[in-house]
Amino acid sequence: MGTSHGKPLTSHPDEARFFLEPVNPLHRQYEALRAYFVEDLPSAEAARRFGYTPGAFRVLCHPFRHEENLQERFFREVRHGPQAAPARDPVRELVVALRKKNLSVYDIQRELHARGHTISINSLSVLLREEGFERLPCRGDEERPHSVKPEPAEIADVRRLDLTPRSFRTRVAGLFLFVPLMQHLDLGQVAEQAQLPGSKMVPPEQALRSLLALKLIGMERKSHVMNLVFDEGLALFAGLNVIPKRSYLADYSCSIGEQGIRRLMETWFEQVQTLGLSRSASLDLDFHSVPANSQHEPLEKHYVSRRSRSQKGVLVFLARDAEQRVMCYANAHIPKCEQADEILRFVEFWKQQTGAPPQELVFDSQLTTYANLARLDQQEVRFLTLRRRTRKLLAESYARPGSAWRRVTLRSLTRSYRTPRVYDERIALARYGKKPIRQLSILDLGHEAPTILLTNDMQATPATLITRYAQRMLIENGIAEAIHFFHIDALSSMVGLKVDFDFQLTLMASSLYRLFARRLPRNYHHATAKVLFESLLDVSGRVDIDETRILVTLDKRAHNPYLVDSGLADQPNAMPWLDNRALVIQFA
Questions:
Q1: Residue 545: what are its φ and ψ, rounded to 5°?
Q2: C-alpha gyration radius of the chain
Q3: Strand pairing of 360-363 and 282-291?
Q4: Backbone phi, then psi, for 351, in 5-degree steps?
Q5: DSSP 8-state secondary structure symbol assigned to residue 241
């Protein structure tokens, strides 16, 4: 048997081990202090026995000597049975009486607050459960206590549209500046060709105008439309008596299937050219993951760069016109197994709409596979992409002598690294086929490791290719704009079709903002939609309706001279959806 201070432990070493080898940190402190203060064990010995350093044990002893309530530190009394509830007990009888009047916990909380009692909803719920009350069933309006309630707005109905002479104020007067931009575009024809759903109360054109108007003013969620249901200017732009409510807008997006969304994109792709937005020869491609917080929808996990993790979401393929700087294609709900082939489907879409494949595609290394690069080359589509850096590629780059590299000059005055070194070669890739592909290894470009580009363009100079790929970063700026102003990541529902439909509205709105920027001075040509809206279009005003025209007078703002110079208010514009009244815009 072991001993402590020369005394035998016990005849039951397992029971003694509980005291001599405590596992719980608080128990270990107690036994160490007891050995030092009661058993007179030297400080160094007590520290060694219970696993403390001598210094740490001295620090442990100091507060123990000066602590007053040692009982509460080591021994907490466990009380059984009902405990006192200072917040609930004083109002218990009153709460029971109020619940017997069929009042909800929120009604009860308001009544208690009026009588000087403060209690949380959670405490009220616990009290009612203790008293045996079940949850209150859903009540009708006549069963609820009288209180201040929101004023109900009219139901959206085009047949109730009032164009009688009158005047009113609106918070979204700047929205009418898009009417001259769309003078040569018939949204009714767009809705008809896309076969969008509608009704006698809200026809397809009015439904599309309502949703597009909310996207143009940067409305974050469809539920936020309730803040503007009494704005007559917004309803007038849509061609209705009032703007549709959130329930209608949410249901409407659910009623459009995948084919309807595809038809809408194809129709807009064709019609937007009538506004002067031509197509360019070069396109930037990228994927974007819309994160979903739903646990019930069967969504795959995708990498979300903003959160640096993989989570459930909807994967969206995006194409951006490099010259016009506008999104021109979007396709959502792409399965992971089809992710690499989406670029081929985009090429087919482009051929159907234009009669020829796109001339140049620029994308990153994870967008597709080497086999699909070969298919693009077979269709005579130029591509420019990154190659993933492996250890073997890096070793080959670092092993090349300095004389093998050629220094080039990039023609960009804003770049910090304008003279990188380039190694230009033709290589063979196993999954690309027998045809060689061009590879550019680039050093001194601002990165520690070399940048490796792959392309089937054998004629362009290295400087041209490097500069062109650097411009691909603008698609990420376009995605950031769609997130921050058009709120593509802040959707009220994560159903794939709803995400897809919201992206089509974003394509339409971004195109209109690019056209609007062109009418402004050059320093606004590449401004984001958020800057354009906040600086120029977020303006209130007065609307005057008479028998032949609708006069919109914009309030004074510092940037109104830019709107005057844009020419959008120079002449009246007919509005067929408003009984062919002429829109006249003027400035206060």
A1: -110, 130
A2: 35
A3: parallel
A4: -65, -40
A5: S
- pLDDT tens, residue by residue, 235-245: 999 999 998 98
Residue 317's Cα: distance from chain center in Å?
A: 15
pLDDT digits (tens, 9 = 90+) for 74-87: 766 555 655 556 66
Range of the domain at 389: 365-471
Do 58 and 139 reside in the same domain of the chain?
no
Q: Within a 10 A sphere around the Cβ of 241, how many other Cβ atoms?
A: 19
**383 and 441: one domain?**
yes
Tokens standing for 416? 């910090």
Q: With the C-alpha atoms ordered 504, 505, 510, 516, is the resulting torsion angle positive or negative?
A: positive
133 pLDDT band (50/70/90 cuts)?
A: confident
Comparing CA positions, the residue from 514, 582, 548 lying closest to residue 216 is 514
Query: Which stretch of 74-78, 193-197, 392-396 has the lowest confidence by average pLDDT?
Result: 74-78
The amino acid that residue 412 corresponds to is: S
d(Cα 50, Cα 126) in Å, to the nearest integer?
Answer: 45
In DSSP terms, which residues pair with 313 in a beta bridge?
Answer: 291
Contact 276, 515 (CB under 8 A): yes
Beta bridge partners of 309: 304
- CA distances (Å), 199 to each of 204, 205, 211, 325, in order? 7, 10, 15, 36
Separation CA 496–CA 57 (nearest Å): 62
- Identity at 582, one-letter amino acid code: A
Encoded tokens for 120: 């949380």
Task: Give the separation between CA 520 and CA 222, rounded to whole angstroms.
Answer: 30
Nearest to 562 by CA among 509, 510, 525: 525
Residue with tokens 């936020």: 224
Backbone angles phi, psi at 105, to 5 degrees: -65, -30
Q: Is residue 525 part of a domain?
A: no
For residue 190, which amino acid is it?
Answer: V
Burial level of 473, CB count in 10 A (0-12/13-18/19+)?
Answer: exposed
Does the pTM surpass 0.85? The reply is no
252 found inside a domain: no
3 state SS of 301? strand
Asked if 587 and 553 touch (Cβ cutoff 8 Å), the reply is: yes
Assigned domain for 150 exists:
no
Name residue, tokens 């707005």: 153
Task: Choose the final residue of a domain: 26, 49, 74.
Answer: 74
374, burial (CB in 10 Å: exposed 0-12, middle 13-18, buried 19+): middle
